[in-house]
Amino acid sequence: MTPLVAVLWVLNVLVDSGGQLAFKAAAGDPLAGDGLARWRFMAARPWLWIGVACYVIEFLVWLAFLSLVPLSEGVLLGSINIVAIMIAGRILFREKLSRMRVAGILLVSVGVAVVGLPG
Amino acid sequence: MKKSFYVIGFLVLMAFDTLAQLSFKTAGMHALPLEMNTAWLARVFSQPWIYGAFVGYVGAFFTWMTLLKHAPIGPAFAASHLEIVSVLALSVWLFGETIGWPQIAGGLLIVAGIGCLAVSETDEDEATGAAALAHER
């Protein structure tokens, strides 16, 4: 992994995690209601737009990343976002980290590490 | 929430995500060399593939926001990554990429991890449902 690829990878993890957490904050608001009113409610608050801004930045970062690595390797390395989001979900939304979920996180992390091995 | 809602929802999400990844790779390849300037952006947006990525992204966004209304973000995000299976197969077929043992072993571990996260989610749902039922009684 060249330094540029590594920087783009880390940047993608950060922007993707930020965006997903903002979307969860927007979509999970219990006051949001249903249907069109729900979209209006979300559009009037910053979380949805913070998420969209992260999406736009991620679009370019991911494009740059994938242009430098094979797609099969890129999507596997991108799976580390699962781990980042799970840990952030635990911290910010108090989502449970059961033993099974910790096992899942470990398996995904080891899987990403194996894909990232040189060779 | 009905199981069919999740099954159909995640399949649609997987299709949009797969389209986006294939389009990203193709658009990125056509815009090489990678430069942090407007010339690179002009090359990116001057060819049709980038719009496939747009369609995939926007479609995935609306599907995802619908799913997120009920699903906790951690496990749902994990399940949304099952696209790696379809993307891996298609990258061999469409781009002639060779998949070595690190990709196969890593991919299997990641899918196993996603499986664990999905199982933990099912257990959680059942526990919540049982608790709600006990409360009602």
From TrEMBL, chain A:
Keywords: Cell inner membrane, Cell membrane, Lipid A biosynthesis, Lipid biosynthesis, Lipid metabolism, Lipopolysaccharide biosynthesis, Membrane, Transmembrane, Transmembrane helix. It is found in: Cell membrane. The keyword DNA repair does not apply. Gene3D superfamilies: 1.10.3730.20. It is a multi-pass membrane protein. Its main location: membrane. Residues 48-115 form the EamA domain. This is EamA family transporter. It comes from Xylophilus rhododendri.
Automatic annotation (TrEMBL), chain B:
GO terms for molecular function: transmembrane transporter activity. It is a multi-pass membrane protein. Pfam families: EamA. SUPFAM superfamilies: Multidrug resistance efflux transporter EmrE. GO terms for biological process: lipid A biosynthetic process; lipopolysaccharide biosynthetic process. The chain crosses the membrane at residues 44-64, 76-95, 101-119. Residues 47-116 form the EamA domain. GO terms for cellular component: plasma membrane. Keywords: Cell inner membrane, Cell membrane, Lipid A biosynthesis, Lipid biosynthesis, Lipid metabolism, Lipopolysaccharide biosynthesis, Membrane, Transmembrane, Transmembrane helix. It is found in: Cell membrane. InterPro entries: EamA_dom, EmrE-like, Small_drug/metabolite_transptr. This is EamA family transporter.
